[in-house]
Design brief:
Length: 206
């Protein structure tokens, strides 16, 4: 997958594309995307936030932004059906995973409509159990010279869907999990809005 500077097949922000956002944590990625949509005139509107449990910081951030939310624990992949039904009921055309930690079963109708951001340069350090600080620890233990983040389409395997884009950062001498995590998250704040903009403007091509 690659991004090209094509003319948008969608209208500008006067008619934004409806997206849903799935999270399992504090919602920093959601907050950053909301700000980027407003700041950078991305023709998208977040119409629903789905959280994997109650009481998450991401729910508070959604409420503060005036975005409706639902809680779906999704403890079994079969529970994915209710999530996609909720997205469809809200009119969402795409789903964005930002720190979502539950495995999803992607319906056929939603193929190439669900994207995820992962805190490493896939295919390195991906797969079941590779999330958050665990990823950065693996990067350090492997002695990698660089890391970064990957935005990719979601399929029914962990972190294996087609890659949309990546942002790279150096791994510096003396890095620990906290310092590397901070640098990677700064890359994520650039990468995800860029990918969402391309997605809703229909600028992603094989």
């Amino acid at each position: 997958m690659s991004m090209q500077n094509l003319h948008s097949e969608n209208p500008t922000a006067t008619n934004p594309v409806s997206v849903g956002f799935l999270l399992s944590g504090g919602g920093r990625t959601l907050e950053n995307l909301v700000e980027a949509i407003q700041r950078d005139d991305i023709p998208a509107r977040i119409d629903l936030v789905i959280a994997s449990k109650a009481g998450l910081g991401g729910i508070e951030k959604a409420s503060r932004a005036g975005i409706p939310h639902q809680v779906h624990p999704c403890k079994r992949v079969e529970d994915s059906e209710a999530i996609f039904s909720a997205l469809e009921d809200a009119g969402c055309q795409f789903a964005i995973l930002g720190g979502w930690l539950r495995k999803l079963l992607i319906p056929t109708a939603w193929e190439n409509r669900v994207i995820n951001i992962h805190p490493s340069l896939l295919p390195r350090h991906g797969g079941k159990g590779c999330y958050g600080d665990r990823v950065h620890q693996r990067v350090l233990e492997a002695g990698d010279q660089e890391s970064g983040c990957t935005v990719h389409f979601v399929d029914n395997e962990y972190d294996q869907g087609p890659i949309i884009l990546q942002e790279k950062v150096p791994v510096l001498s003396g890095d620990d999990v906290a310092s590397l995590s901070k640098r990677v998250f700064e890359a994520e704040m650039v990468a995800l809005p860029k990918a969402v903009n391309a997605l809703v403007r229909n600028q992603i091509r094989d």
